[in-house]
Amino acid sequence: MNGPAIVIHNLDHARAAMAAAAALGAPVTLLSAPGAAAYLGASVFRDMVEQAAAEYPEVPVSAVLDCGGDAGLALGAFRHGLRAVRLAASEEVLAKVRDIAGQQGAAVDESNAPALDLLDEPDPAAACRAWLAGS
User: Fold this and answer.
1) Are the CB atoms for 62 and 1 separated by under 8 Å?
2) What tens digit of pLDDT does each residue of 75-112 get?
3) Residue 61: which H helix or E strand, with range?
4) How far apart are CA 86 and CA 74, in angstroms?
5) Which residues have C-beta within 8 Å of that of residue 19, sequence separation ≥ 6?
6) Element housing 58 (H / E)
7) Which of 3.40.50.720, 3.20.20.70, 3.30.450.40, 3.30.300.20 would CATH assign to domain 5-134?
């Protein structure tokens, strides 16, 4: 991960996180919601992150798509250009996905660091500023 993590659920959340990071001169990691690969899809998440990142090119950003327990979705995320995924799988499956990821310059994110989830935040921009300032 490239900086403190923020769980985003839409483009407005991604923009709020990027704007806060830009204002503070901080890196940020944009995480999808748990299991988002199954309902949002890798290309939608990738495009959302890329659009927000293009508005703040000075901000170091990484993106992590949560694939739940589906290794196929994780591999698909790599094919769609994402460089990091989360995967809840057996150690045997994780080892295989880590190997494939490494061959493609990608990774399985296994961080347990806390993350700010913007789902129920009434003011995502203020929440992001406070989260990044305190990290």
Assistant:
1) yes
2) 999 999 999 999 999 999 999 999 999 999 999 999 98
3) strand 61-66
4) 8
5) 56, 125, 128
6) none
7) 3.20.20.70
**What phi, psi does 20 have (nearest 5°)?**
-65, -45
Residue ranges covered by each domain of the chain: 5-134
pTM listed for this prediction: 0.95
- Residues with Cβ within 8 Å of 87's Cβ and at least 6 positions away in sequence, in order, are 67, 68, 69, 70, 71, 74, 93, 94, 97, 108
Single out the residue of 54, 11, 6, 48 nearest to residue 27, CA to CA.
6
pLDDT in tens, 11-67: 999 999 999 999 999 999 999 999 999 999 999 999 999 999 999 999 999 999 999
- The Cα-based distances of 65 to 28, 33, 68, 104, 129 in angstroms read 14, 8, 9, 16, 22
Helical H runs in 1-135?
11-24, 36-39, 42-55, 71-79, 91-103, 124-134
Tell me the β-bridge partners of 30.
6, 63
| Count of beta carbons in the 10 Å neighbourhood of residue 122 | 6
